[in-house]
Design a protein that fits this description.
globular, single chain
Length: about 240
């Protein structure tokens, strides 16, 4: 199951109204998603007007879309009132800069606004090969390394955010990865979060020392990796 299908099925079943997507430069998953209120965040949108118009006709909920062309850090720092105007977030999709720190901050910031039965979905949590998992500043930095096995696919070290969240919030969050679409991370509250949502730098540094090879020894344990069929279980249980 691809990310757009999973996102839509969850929204439809739960009748969610408030959707946030971080990292939607081309609008490929954002525009098709049917939800009453949708917020898009990206520092460099590249969505042609023709594509926006096409999807407005196909999906009229796009008429209420809000677009914020800024980094996610800037968005969360400046747009508190914008988020509070909609009420709690129902679903947040994190697909921004593919680094451990950026993806983790996006999740922690989203948790501040997530309703009790909301869900965060993360993309690129199970890279298909070592070259695509290389820690880098951005895509161009990763591509410039000319690594063996490089095929243009870069997931980065987003997977480390899953490890961090499992360690920091194991009692309060369900955190795991569904083995589909380069790894869809699921972050779902089990109870009210009482642990601080500030970045724990000591834990961050500890997790950051992990390597892709170490993770691949037992991804079922480290990431809570689950078969693609578990997506259907998730939908049936929510």
């Amino acid at each position: 199951m691809q990310r757009t299908a999973l996102i839509q099925q969850i929204i439809s079943k739960k009748k969610y109204k408030n959707y946030l997507e971080i990292g939607c430069q081309y609008g490929m998953s954002f525009l098709p998603t049917v939800c009453r209120n949708k917020i898009a965040v990206d520092p460099a949108f590249d969505i042609p007007l023709k594509r926006k118009f096409k999807w407005l006709i196909k999906n009229p909920t796009n008429i209420r879309n809000r677009y914020f062309e800024e980094t996610s850090d800037e968005f969360f720092a400046k747009r508190k009132s914008e988020l509070e105007k909609y009420g709690k977030l129902d679903l947040a999709f994190v697909d921004g800069l593919h680094t451990f720190e950026a993806s983790l901050k996006d999740v922690l910031n989203s948790l501040h606004y997530l309703q009790d039965d909301g869900i965060i979905i993360m993309h690129d949590c199970f890279p298909p090969h070592k070259a695509g998992a290389v820690p880098a500043k951005n895509y161009d930095d990763a591509a410039s390394m000319n690594l063996p096995g490089w095929d243009g696919l870069w997931c980065g070290d987003v997977w480390k955010s899953i490890v961090y969240l499992k360690k920091a919030f194991g009692e309060q969050l369900d955190v795991y990865v569904i083995d589909t679409d380069f790894g869809l991370g699921i972050v779902k509250p089990k109870q009210k979060i009482t642990t601080s949502l500030d970045l724990d730098r000591k834990l961050f540094d500890e997790v950051n020392q992990l390597t892709y090879d170490e993770m691949m020894i037992n991804p079922q344990d480290m990431l809570g990796l689950r078969d693609v069929k578990f997506a259907e279980t998730l939908i049936s249980e929510i």
